[in-house]
Amino acid sequence: MADKSKEIVSQLDQQVLFDLATIHAYVVSRETTKSLQSYTFEQYLQQAKDQIKTDKETDRPTKLDRLQRISDLLNSTIDKVKQFNKKQKDNVETT
Questions:
Q1: Cα-Cα-Cα-Cα dihedral sign, residues 43, 47, 49, 53
Q2: Are 61 and 55 in contact (CB under 8 A)?
Q3: Integer Cα distance of 77 and 84 in angstroms
Q4: Distances in Å between the alpha carbon of 87 and those of 42, 48, 78, 82?
Q5: How far apart are CA 63 and CA 47, in angstroms?
Q6: What sign has the CA pseudo-torsion 69, 70, 75, 79?
Q7: What pTM was computed for the model?
Q8: In degrees rounded to 5, what are phi and psi of residue 59?
Q9: Contact of 45 with 37, CB cutoff 8 Å
Q10: pLDDT, tens digit, for every residue of 11-56?
Q11: How many Å is the Cα radius of gyration of the chain?
Q12: How far apart are CA 26 and CA 48, in angstroms?
């Protein structure tokens, strides 16, 4: 009998936890919806621009700086390949 009552209490505990999780999810989703409704497209665009220009939250380079570094690296690599190709071509012509 005691095992059956423990099982019933366990089932009730699980149901209560499930119900609390459902209520919490509903409240959080309502709050999220409210905050999204007050967030305008213009605010989103401004935030995206700010993230590109400056990364205020961390000391990391900005997105624009990172893109510039990648662009510079790509251009220098292309130049190195061109120079190597030219040297190889010159070596073939001289031999």
A1: positive
A2: yes
A3: 10
A4: 53, 45, 14, 9
A5: 13
A6: positive
A7: 0.42
A8: -90, 5
A9: no
A10: 878 888 888 899 999 988 888 887 777 777 788 788 777 777 765 6
A11: 31
A12: 29
